[in-house]
Design goal:
By secondary structure, this protein is an alpha+beta fold. It has 13 helices and 10 strands. A hairpin with a 3-residue loop joins β1 and β2.
Amino acid sequence: MESLSTFFNWRTEIKKNNAYSVGEEIILLKDPNFFSNINYPVKLDLTIAIVCMKGGLKVNVNLKEYDVQDPALIVVISDQIVQFKKIDKDIEAQFLLMSNNFLASLLSGPQERFPLFLSVFNDPYIPLNREGLDSLNEYYSLLQKEIEKKDNPYRLETIKHLTQAMFYGTSYQFHKIPNDNKRTKHEVLVEDFIELVNTNFKMQREVGFYADKLNLTPKYLSKVIKDNSGKSANNWIDDYVVLEAKALLKSTNMNVQQISDHLNFPSQSFFGKYFKRKVGISPKEFRKE
């Protein structure tokens, strides 16, 4: 059966850039123009790690905007929705793209060995100190040298071991949580709610469902979410639905009926009216923009 969707065609875009690569397994870029093209919400079937050495960029990852300023690392995991809002003209950065197959080969052991990839789902932006930046630059340089050794029959295996060594040696630095910034119970509740929405929004759009999961009344949950996030619970749910719809319209070949089904709407007509009410234009008009 043919897949209903394809992702943003990064393979075509990569060909326009000078890149170091081993097939589609791992790709190194230094030209930010590739990412300038991702100026609308898309899903990617690969993981991107960006080491920002000078300047900065603004990027949305799953509804949250990050203002990345040097020195920093930001990691966008495969299947997350990403949109690059702004990239400084004078940015100096190193871009590492890794296929799902490549990552799967790294993550074949106990997941606790890779705290970076476990933590970046919720916190993709990692400010770096000089030690962390130097470590990543050294890894990138070594990786580039290994990729250039095209006559090495064990090139990919060497690169995998090098990448694992980098994770072992440096990832512990990236997510140190300060003890003096303890979260309030309401902040924890907001995070728990958003995590539930992220997991269930395709099937559940009623606040009551989330309130029941959190053992709260819908009224109390709505008040806490509004007071502590500045946005109502209903708006959070709608934003996730609309973002997913936008990404599917722009980065897949799914038709409107398929997207409507994917998001569990009762009909294409209902979905169309919902989308136009939230976005201001119809799904088909949005796709043509």
